[in-house]
Amino acid sequence: MNGLTHQRCLNHSVREAVARCPECGHFFCRECITEHDDRVICTACLKKLTKVPLTQRRGFASVLRVAQCGLGILLAWFFFYLLGESLVSLPNSFHEGTLWKSHGSDEE
Ligand SMILES: [Zn+2]
Ligand SMILES: [Zn+2]
Question: What's the 20 CA to ligand 2 centre distance in angstroms?
Answer without folding.
Answer: 11
